[in-house]
Design brief:
400 residues; alpha/beta; TIM Barrel; binds pyridoxal-5'-phosphate
Length: 400
């Protein structure tokens, strides 16, 4: 059974853990999901890839999430195992033939994404009759103030997308359009711009659109990044719906991942060695901290010292994970008090997204445990940066 503590610090005081500890806050995930589901004027599908822990999925469900963006048979199977008659959508544009058949016949999958004529051919060959399906064409996204660009791998240019939409209809399926503006997208206007492009493609194709899915990408606060409030994203989306005159018969959908779950976790790690400004931790990029390798994903960090507080001046550190591989390095600057010593515990906040799902056991360092904590989460503040850097922050959307 998962133990519950009031805070990560209380957990450290009691357990003094040697392995990384994932502190889960289902109540925070539940409320975050509730806020998103209520604010979004359509169906919010949770992107299961972001964090597929059963306790997280349960909290999302309790928060009102009823739709799941699944990208593999294993994810579809997991959602079916946990929920009765769930609404899953196969939003991976490249699927194996076996996965197409199995998802359709075994799990009742009826919505698939694609961005190429050959994928459409695969769907037709494997499923035969497409009349029960909605086939959602993924549109190529332009890079727009997102930390993690997803445009290079998937997405059809406008002409191809319009052509695919017409072909989808010719084959008897319902047509949809989708895009992904990139993960941790700092610009609400990116959604409006992509909705305008989707509308161009839709007009060009001349079809009646059954689905417009505006993807994921909704951001959270990290050190030095304080994105616009969710309400500004929702306002941009509402403006898009109005401007492109989206018919009520077109179902609006979104695929949030990061914004739903980041705040619901902290990861508590231990300092195994300090060498000058380099901290060697018991977790790293082969463990749960891979996402921190991306510029702009600076998770907040603080010292948890049983019976004491850290008081030193902020200095810049580099972090290293526990494996022997030099790739296991999170280059700084991570601004932390100068008095960190071997044996200290560090809490890494905003850690619910793309952490446990990327965890490996490489080099024998895969162990971690998890607990529940009752606090409200650990978000970054301005004080986590030295004064000289505070004026140079990404506060909001330069593009508005
Ligand atoms: C197709 C698709 N949808 C949704 C997401 C979730 O994105 P985010 O976590 O940025 O909201 C991703 C992330 O990679 C994705 O590839």
């Amino acid at each position: 059974m998962t133990q519950t503590f009031s805070t990560p610090k209380a957990m450290v005081e009691e357990l003094r853990p040697e392995v990384p500890i994932h502190c889960l806050r289902p109540h925070v995930i539940r409320e975050t999901a509730r806020r998103f589901v209520q604010a979004f004027p359509g169906n919010a599908m949770y992107a299961v890839k972001c964090n597929n822990d059963r306790r997280v999925l349960r909290a999302l469900y309790e928060g009102g999430v009823r739709h799941f963006d699944t990208a593999s048979i294993a994810e579809i199977e997991q959602i079916h195992d946990q929920f009765l008659n769930p609404n899953c959508y196969y939003m991976h544009p490249v699927k194996s033939r076996t996965a197409i058949r199995e998802s359709y016949h075994r799990y009742g999958m009826r919505t698939f994404s694609l961005d190429h004529h050959d994928e459409l051919r695969k769907l037709r060959e494997e499923l035969g009759d497409l009349s029960q399906t909605t086939l959602v064409v993924r549109l190529e996204a332009v890079r727009a103030q997102a930390v993690c660009d997803l445009g290079g791998k998937f997405g059809a240019p406008n002409d191809l997308a319009a052509d695919l939409l017409r072909e989808v209809v010719r084959l008897g399926a319902k047509p949809g359009l989708t895009f992904h503006v990139g993960s941790q997208c700092l610009s609400p206007k990116a959604y409006l711009n992509m909705m305008r492009r989707a509308a161009d493609v839709w007009q060009q194709s001349g079809v009646d659109l059954a689905v417009l899915d505006i993807g994921g990408g909704f951001p959270v606060a990290y050190v030095g990044t304080f994105p616009p409030d969710l309400s500004e994203y929702m306002a941009a989306i509402a403006e898009g719906v109005q401007e492109i005159a989206l018919p009520p018969t077109t179902r609006l959908m979104a695929e949030p991942g990061r914004a739903m779950v980041a705040k619901g976790y902290s990861i508590v790690v231990r300092v195994m060695l300090r060498r000058d400004n380099q901290l060697y931790l018991n977790d790293g990029s082969y463990g749960s901290l891979m996402d921190m390798k991306l510029d702009g994903i600076d998770l907040p960090i603080r010292i948890l010292r049983p019976g004491g507080e850290a008081t030193g001046d902020l200095i810049s550190y580099d972090l290293f994970g526990p494996t022997c591989d030099s790739v296991d390095h999170l280059p700084g600057p991570y601004w932390l008090p100068d008095d960190i010593i071997e044996g200290d515990w560090l809490e890494i906040g905003q850690a619910g997204a793309y952490t446990n799902v990327l965890h490996t056991g490489f080099n024998g360092f895969g162990d971690f445990a998890s607990v529940f904590t009752e606090d409200e989460g650990f978000e970054p503040t301005l004080e986590m940066l030295p004064k000289t850097l505070r004026g140079k922050l990404v506060h909001n959307d330069a593009d508005r």
